[in-house]
Design brief:
Chain B: It comes from Halorubrum aquaticum. The complex is a heterodimer of chains A (about 140) and B (about 300). With about 140 residues, chain A is mainly α. Chain A is built from 6 helices and no strands. Classes of the chains: A mainly alpha (about 140), B alpha+beta (about 300). The complex binds protoporphyrin IX containing FE, iron/sulfur cluster and FE2/S2 (inorganic) cluster (FES). FE2/S2 (inorganic) cluster binds next to loops of chain B.
Chain lengths: ~140, ~300
């Protein structure tokens, strides 16, 4: 009883093919949430290179020759990293906007327009992402 | 339309009987012969009907899920195609009944009221949970795929076993209970207009199971009460006449591990409910009700 249904052969039929707005919002929110967690840990790993750098000589630091600066500079030099940063912003913005939408849903505010607020989140995310491209890509080429 | 078909058959039988009664032969033989001829005529008529329907411009094409675990050769799920002459206002249920009455009497599905009241004909139509008698053919893209509800055992063709759904409905004790009685013995238990208005939509459920079938969470957790059962709990928990004791008991049922907190606000149930019950709204309100009930700052 506690396991999910397995109808054997028939399970291949009668599957959802059409998702409505609320379902897409849920899938994207899950996805973006886990991407953010993943980023958080890589972010911590990169920042930790500042720990050995803190013991470096002042001259080395001023010349930008310490591990931390070197790591950041080489990472930011990669086009792939710049593109991923745009992606990260998109993911974060969507998660924030849809997160705000979910908070409203939890409070029972505007449930009739839950689909519209999802589309609005998408459009706004798109706009902010596009607007951010010059900043992130500048100097990458 | 479908009801006219058997009448035609009767007429054909009568003419067959009349011609035969002149032939001098024994009763049994005659009856066997009559049956054989009637059979032949029926088959011929069906073939003609199918041919005409397939040739006709104004027909709709149905692809219907077929499966029968009891008959060898039908245990492998398959799709049968039916061509049904379109008439204005035709519903998916009408088309299925036409198919059954005209082409294949073994085609199995539930239906009763044909007016979205009994809740027996929820199906999976073109990828969504629909009440067949409430779904207009001309609003659908062809070919129309008709399948049994997802996430329930298929008994035969379009019939699924709803026992589990009914168990969940019963788990929330879907009947009026109270410890607070009016003073006079013969006095009625009146409800305020506002309170009636509050629970109005939640009383409309026809137990069709479309919402349960559409729910991603219910699919992964068979113990989850499901949208319909929670809506039923809402209908009584929000009824002021039940009193505080009973409301506490109801909140305990809905806030258990497989109760309201499983809901992830995907809105699938609200989307498919043929009675337009705001299921997600009711579930969310019960969540808040449960929190308010447990949070004590003093
Ligand atoms: C303004 C910022 C944020 C808002 C408003 C927000 C909002 C939310 C909300 C409301 C949920 C619950 C979704 C539900 O009800 O099912 C959620 C889930 C989640 N959030 Fe956020 N969040 C934010 C930032 C973040 C950040 C920075 C991270 C990661 C470091 C993150 C990771 C997650 C994860 C992993 C989940 C769970 C996803 C799942 O359902 O499996 N969120 N967020
Ligand atoms: S809540 Fe709506 S979809 Fe669910 S069983 Fe009742 S009528 Fe059907
Ligand atoms: S036949 Fe009764 S609800 Fe459709």
């Amino acid at each position: 009883m506690s396991q999910s249904y397995n109808r054997g052969l028939i399970e291949d039929f009668s599957r959802w093919r059409e998702f409505e707005a609320g379902m897409w919002a849920w899938i994207f929110h899950k996805f973006t949430g886990w991407v953010l967690i993943g980023y958080l840990f890589t972010h911590i790993a990169v920042l930790s290179t500042a720990i050995p750098a803190s013991g470096a000589e002042t001259a080395v630091l001023q010349a930008g020759n310490d591990v931390y600066t070197q790591t950041i500079v080489s990472l930011e030099g990669l086009l792939l990293v710049r593109v991923l940063e745009v992606g990260l912003l998109a993911v974060a913005v969507f998660h924030m906007l849809n997160g705000a939408r979910l908070l409203l849903v939890d409070l029972g505010v505007g449930l009739e327009s839950q689909d519209k607020s999802f589309y609005a989140s998408l459009v706004l995310t798109g706009a902010i992402t596009v607007a951010s491209v010059p900043t992130f890509i500048a100097g990458a080429f | 339309m479908s009801t006219q078909i058997p009448k035609q058959t009767e007429k054909a039988d009568e003419t067959a009987a009349e011609t035969e009664s002149e032939a001098p032969s024994k009763g049994d033989e005659r009856r066997a012969e009559k049956r054989r001829r009637a059979d032949e005529q029926r088959r011929q008529r069906e073939a003609e009907e199918a041919e005409r329907a397939a040739a006709d411009e104004n027909t709709v094409e149905l692809r219907v899920f077929r499966y029968d675990p009891d008959v060898e050769g039908k245990q492998e799920p398959r799709f049968d195609t039916f061509h049904v002459p379109f008439t204005k206002g035709m519903t998916v249920l009408d088309a299925l009944m036409y198919s059954r009455d005209t082409y294949d009497s073994s085609l199995t599905f539930r239906h009763s009221c044909r007016q979205a009241v009994c809740g027996s004909d929820a199906m999976f139509v073109n990828g969504g949970q629909k009440l067949a008698c409430k779904t207009q053919i001309d609003e659908l893209e062809e070919p129309i795929r008709v399948e049994p509800l997802p996430h329930a055992e298929v008994t035969k063709d379009l019939v699924v076993d709803l026992e589990h759904f009914y168990d969940q409905m019963e788990a929330v004790e879907p009947y009026f209970q109270t410890n607070e009685y009016p003073d006079g013995e013969l006095e009625e238990q009146r409800q305020t207009r506002e309170n009636r208005e509050k629970i109005k939509m939640s009383t409309r459920c026809i137990w069709c199971s479309a919402c349960m079938s559409s729910c991603n969470i219910a699919a992964g957790d068979n113990e989850y009460l499901g949208p319909a059962a929670i809506n039923k709990a809402y209908r009584f928990a929000m009824d002021e006449r039940e009193g505080e004791d009973v409301k506490q008991k109801r909140l305990e049922i809905i806030e258990q591990e497989h109760g309201v907190w499983r809901c992830q606000t995907q809105f699938s149930c609200t989307e498919v409910c043929p009675k337009d019950i705001p299921l997600t709204e009711h579930i969310q309100e019960l969540k808040r009700e449960a929190v308010k009930n447990n949070l004590k700052f003093w």
